[in-house]
Amino acid sequence: MIKKISEFWYSILKFLRSTDFTKAVILTISIGSAIGIFNALGLSNIGIPLAVGCLLTAPSDTIGTLKHKIIGVIVAAFLAGLTSMIIGYSSANIYFTIPVVGIMVFAISYLAVYGFRASMVAFAGLMAVVLSFANVDTSMTLWQHSLLIAAGGLWYLSLSVLWHFINPKHETEQLLAQCLELTGEYLQVRSQLILNVENRDNLQRKLFDLQNELNQKHESLREVLISSRKLSGNSNYARKRLLVFIELVDILELGMANPVNYERMDYLFSKDKEFLAIFSDVTHYLGLQLIEISKSIESKRPVPENKISEYIDKSRQAVNRYRDQIDITEKREHILMLHNLFDYQERQSHKINTIFGVVNNLKQGNAIFMKHKEVVKFITPQEYSFKTLQENFNFGSPIFRHALRLAIVVLIGFSVGAFFSIQNAYWILLTIVVIMRPNYGLTKSRTKERIIGTLIGGFIAIVIVFITQNPYIYGALGLLSLTMAFSLIQRNYRTAAVFITLSIIFIYALLKPDVIKVIEFRIIDTFVGAILAGLGNLFLWPTWESGNIRNIIATSIAANRDYFLEIDKFYHKKGELPTTYKLARKKAFLEMGNLSAAFQRMTQEPKSKQKDLGLIYRLVSLNQTFLSALASMGTYIRNHNTTEASKDFEVFVKQVLHSLNNAEEGLIAQAKQKKTNVELLKEAKSRLDEKYEELVKIRNQEIAEGKELADQDLRLQLQEAQLITNQLQWLLDISKNIRKTVFKTTSI
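User: That's the sequence. What structure does it adopt?
Assistant: Structure tokens below.
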């Protein structure tokens, strides 16, 4: 009970320290100060457009470097002011307003081709279009009103930048803590996969989600760390945080590689699961330690006692006990598998201990000296060129179709509000703009969450209105609800919708006495907007994932192939790990995350559009398994003194590449299926097996002569021969299954 209470309070404190809550507080302060200062001066007509400007530009303040945030907010403020002025001047004539609104909504939405930050900047412009119909009387000329909206955005920016200089490390620490926590959860789910046979499919899906989220966090943290390192130089803080990040990337790769062939493990240890349980517990604790480190960063307190060495000893003892109770000549594969597991956990523990030491200032991270020209290669650049606009200006672009769809639905919503003379009809447009997304699945889920959140918010507002009619309470609740809404909009949209409804109702309650009518119209307008958004995504040039999934699968296969080629090169040359290897690994992880996300979106679409869903899920799983097998082979080769790669190894490599290339060609160019050279593979496999058997004979002879423990070199050679041969065979089997599954699917 005490533990649950402690965890509850920690979650509350974590939320209050979060970047989202901080930005929401800055927004609330900027709005409150803008209105409060000018109200005190008797100039409320100035305070309102300033507050609107703050509200419109705040979403563009997304995670990234200070330079990018400043540029993003300035562009959003300028766009909001310009849009308000254009729509305002065009609203004098309804026949002129409709085409202007349609063109503006399309043009602004189309800016999303430049990426996430650009889509948030575009959101400021879209919201400006919507709020231009709010009919707020400011008793000033339209151009002055528009300038004040832009000035409000700059006022918010000044407070945000001020907070950045007061606490410059806040965002980095938050991102780092989130990556640590997610990586810890990833390891814990991996630990469950060892024994939880019945629930592996669900656990695998959870891993897909976690990996996708980790990829996104890694991208953001990579940009922040590398860019801040450029500005601040090779400072101790920058080195330490970069070291932690590098270790986290390696931990994720190791986590994907442990263990890989679960079916084989189930077969070998069907009667000895108690040994696997020990390894499962150790991996779970390693994940828990990362979560505890993330909590220490969040709460600014020391990390709890580190017991990793004790848990690693448990794994070591398990290996020794198992070796003592078996006939090693009969169960050599079993003991080698346990050795591989132990080696994995030992390497993982070293990396987590490094993070532990860095966070507790036990190690300064002085070994991190990377040239800026090298590290910037790991940042995914966003090209802001006119060429990007040209390339996407066609119906093949999801963003183009979304922009056109949104423009049409907004015009329909505007016409409905005008025809039926609906009070506050711009709420219909607001709902459309907020919940409508390029893909059907996200729009559907947002529609549902928006409606439920609005109903809950309306009910809570009615209860409060019946309890009190105090305008000061309404004002306080309005500001508090606004803060909570912006804090939660990225975390939990349904709850955010509750607070959005509450904030709007209480703010209107200060302006209009009939609060119940306000609640009624709010609910009706939300329903109308949500229905229009849903119908628009369903019937107006919908973007179904089935239409693009083949390209995403092909890209993931190509990324895995490039990663495999880098592993092959490194196996031959060894030495220092090249940047090309790291870049190929990063791309393989990112593309696998993109594929998982695309499949998740596909499952949210209508059943009639989910063509070959089972086969596509199999392709997603096979690609994930192939990447895990690659990570396993790559980490083994990197961390062990391996022998020279043989010609037989290259035979397998070529045949794996053959299957992957054929699968990619089948997806993109509708090529015919090409089978592998079975005879060539049999010969290569036979020679690899012979090499392994020779080593086994040497070891058996040593055992017969009374030598219980093998020499380190012989043990490593046995381990390499067994693992590399098995991994090659498994990679070949997976690649062949990928190829066969591609040619089975009719939809791709």
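Residues 363-379 have pLDDT under 50 and may be disordered.
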